[in-house]
């Protein structure tokens, strides 16, 4: 994770917290290489104390190899510890919405049923997130023209979860 990505991850963490998504664990895994190890302190300074920066030892098995991933990937786990999304480049760039949306889906979907890790207000928080997403879609939808423009055609967009 480069320094820019790390600072964007911090921004995303704050954004999600402000939207009510709490108790999310973030871990940045620093590369094993000597160059990355020398920049460890800069990486750690790019994020708050709420994001763990893990420094791999150069003699241990590489974390990314163990996880079948690459250096810039995002692995998103649900509250039960199951891998929900594995996003690689270019989908892992935080300037896009893929990582944020994947975190929100993993947070809001109740795939593992009743769970002691579920936040008490999760239904309200997730309903609010869905409503905001629907409003954004409505803003960019083309308006009907011609003779039917006086009729209101209500379209509901449903998110398809995979």
UniProtKB/TrEMBL annotation:
Residues 140-162 are annotated as: Disordered. One of its GO terms (biological process) is selenium compound metabolic process. One of its GO terms (molecular function) is selenium binding. It holds the Pfam family SelP_N. Residues 1-162 form the Selenoprotein P N-terminal domain. GO terms for cellular component: extracellular region. Keywords: Glycoprotein, Secreted, Selenocysteine, Signal. It is found in: Secreted. The keyword Secreted applies. This is SEPP1 protein.
């Amino acid at each position: 994770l480069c320094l820019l990505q790390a600072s964007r991850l911090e921004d995303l963490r704050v954004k999600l917290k402000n939207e009510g998504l709490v108790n999310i664990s973030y871990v940045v895994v620093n590369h094993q290489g000597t160059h990355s190890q020398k920049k460890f302190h800069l990486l750690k300074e790019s994020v708050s104390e709420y994001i763990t920066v893990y420094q791999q030892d150069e003699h241990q098995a590489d974390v990314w190899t163990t996880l079948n991933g690459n250096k810039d990937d995002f692995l998103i786990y649900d509250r039960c510890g199951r891998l929900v999304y594995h996003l690689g480049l270019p989908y892992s760039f935080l300037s896009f919405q893929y990582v944020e949306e994947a975190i929100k889906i993993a947070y809001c979907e109740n795939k593992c049923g009743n769970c002691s890790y579920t936040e008490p207000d999760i239904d309200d928080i997730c309903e609010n997130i869905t409503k905001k997403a629907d409003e954004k879609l409505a803003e960019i939808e083309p308006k009907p023209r011609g003779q039917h423009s006086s009729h209101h055609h209500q379209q509901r967009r449903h998110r398809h979860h995979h």
